[in-house]
Amino acid sequence: MVAWLAVCLFVQGSPRAGAVDVYVQLSQHGRRINIGVAVFTPFSSDIKEAETARKIQEVLRHDLLFTRYFNVSEIDASLKDKPDERKVKLMEAGQRGVDVVVTGSVRIHKTECTLKAELYDAQTGENIFNMTFKDSPENYRAMAHELNDEIVLRFTGIRGIAHTKIAFVNDNTGSKEIYVVDYDGHNLRKLTSLGSICLFPRWSPDGKKIIFTTYRYGNPDLYVMNAEGSSVEGVSRRQGLNTAAVWLPDGKSILLTMSGGATPQIYEIDTKGKIIRQLTMGRAIDTSPSVSPAGREFVFVSDRAGAPQLYVSDVHGTNVRRLPTEGYVDSPSWSPRGDAVAFAMRPYGKNFFDIFLYGIANGSVRQMTFGSRSNESPSFSPDGRFIAYCSDPDRKKEIFLMFIDGSGQRRVGGIKGNSSMPSWSP
Predict the structure, then answer these.
(1) Average pLDDT of span 334-342
(2) Model pLDDT for residues 155-169, shown as the tens digit of each residue
(3) Is residue 15 in a domain?
C-alpha cells in the first residue's frame, strides 16, 4: 500500500564459473535427500578452533533444513579416521537411511580461519567433493552459508541461497533508513544515516548496488549506493516523484515512477538518470514496476480501471494487458523463475492486505497468506522458491519469509523498530 500512496528464462543463484559436477543420483525422484552432519573437528586442541567448528556445524544444519531439499540428522561421530574406518562409519549411517554425510575440520591461524569440508556418499563411501573455505574467525557464518550453497549446487545444479541478504526499511532510529540482514536474520547492518525517509531499496542484478528513494532533500529523489552503504549518489532528482524503482536484468537501465508535477507514470532511465523513454501515458496513476527475468516485459500497478490493478506491458510500453485480480492491488514482484508474479491485494470488502500469487502459465490467482492483519511487499528469493514480505501480526511491522506454497512462515530475526519493504538480494 505504501508504494501506491507514495505514489530469466530462469534467473537464479548462479553456479560459479566453470564446470560443476551435479550429483543427481539421489535426488532424481524428487524426494528429500537424507543428509547426515558428522562432527566438525578442530585441527588442533585449540579451544577457539573447537568452538568455531561447533558453530559452523550448527549454522550449516540450519541452512540445510531451510532449503527443504534435505532431511537432516546428526551423526555423533567424527570422520577423521583412516579410510577403512571412515568407510565403516559411513556405511553404518547408510544402513540407518542416510544418503550422504557432510563433515569438516577447522583451523585458525592468526586472523584467518580455514574450513576444509567433505561430502560423502553414505551408501558407497565415495567422496563427492572436498572444498576449502577461508575467512576471518568472526565470519564463520559466511563459511557455513557457502558450504550449504555448494552442497545445494551439487544436488540441483543451482547454487543455494544461504549467502544471500535482504535489504529493507526500518525506523528504529526515529527516521526510516535502509538496513541489510543475512537471509537467516543475522548480521544486521544499517546502510544509510540520512535522518529522513528512505524507501523502496532494490538490488542491482549483480548484487553490488542498491537503489532507493529518499526525502533527505525534501523531494522523493532516487539515489544509489554500494551494497555496503558507501558512495551514496543521486540518480534521478527531478521535481516530483522519483520512486518505486527497479533495475532491468542487464543492469544498464532502471524503471521507476516519475511525476514531474503531473500524473505519475513509468519511465526508463539509464544509471546516470537520463530518460530513455516514457513507458506509460494517460491520466491514470501508473507505478510499482517489476521486470520479468528475461527483461522483455514488466508488471505494474495502475488505476486506469478505477481501482489499482495489475497490468503487464512489454519493455517498450506496448501490448498492455490487465491481469485478473479482484481487489486493491500493490507491490508486484516477478519471480526469477519467470512463472509467477507475487503481489499484495486487499480484496474488496476486506480491511487488510494479503499476499497472492498469479500463475503466468494458467492465469490462476492463489492466496498465500491469511493473516488477521496486513501482509505486503513480497520479494522473491533468487531461486524463486521463497518469498520475503512485510507483516504486522502484533501491530509491529516485521520481515517474514515463507515457502512458495505459503507454508513455513517465520520472522527474520528479532529486529527492533518497524521493518518493511524487503528486497532479496541476487
Answers:
(1) 98
(2) 999 999 999 999 999
(3) no
As a whole number of angstroms, the distance between CA 184 and CA 98 comes to: 26
Structure-block grid coordinates of residue 246: 527497479
| 346 close to 327: Cβ distance less than 8 angstroms | yes
Position 26 in a domain: no
For residue 231, what are the CA distances in angstroms to 176, 221, 263, 356, 424? 19, 16, 32, 36, 21
Q: How many helices (H) and strands (E) are present in the chain, helices listed first? A: 4, 30
Lowest mean pLDDT among 3-17, 102-116, 148-162, 210-224: 3-17
pLDDT value for 85: 84
Same-domain status, 278 and 416:
yes
Q: How far is CA 402 from CA 67, 197, 250, 409, in A?
A: 11, 28, 28, 4
Q: By residue range, what is the domain housing residue 300?
A: 164-424
Q: What DSSP letter does each residue of 9-58 carry, written as one string?
A: ----SPPPSS------TTTTTSPPEEEEEEPPEESSS-HHHHHHHHHHHH
Confidence tier at 21 by pLDDT (50, 70, 90): low
- Asked whether residue 68 is assigned to any structural domain, the reply reads yes
Contacts within 8 Å (CB) and 24+ apart, 156-159 = 156/22, 156/27, 156/69, 157/15, 157/20, 157/22, 157/24, 158/12, 158/13, 158/15, 158/383, 159/12, 159/13, 159/14, 159/15, 159/16
Residues 171 and 146 in one domain: no
Of the residues 107, 137, 156, the one at which a domain ends: 156
* Residues 236 and 282 placed together within one structural domain of the fold: yes
How many domains does the chain divide into?
2
Instruction: Report in angstroms the alpha-carbon separations of 122 from 34, 35, 89.
Output: 10, 9, 9
- For residue 80, what pLDDT is reported? 78
Across the chain, what does the average pLDDT equal? Answer: 92
Report the C-alpha gap between 256 and 268 in whole angstroms: 7
What does the pLDDT look like over 389-403, one tens digit per residue? 999 998 999 999 999
pLDDT at 227 over 70: yes
**Residue 187 CB neighbours (<10 A):** 13
pLDDT of residue 179: 98
- What is the spatial distance between Cα 387 and Cα 58, in angstroms, rounded to a whole number? 24
Residues 79 and 123 in one domain: yes
Q: How many other CB atoms are there within 10 angstroms of residue 251's CB atom?
A: 13
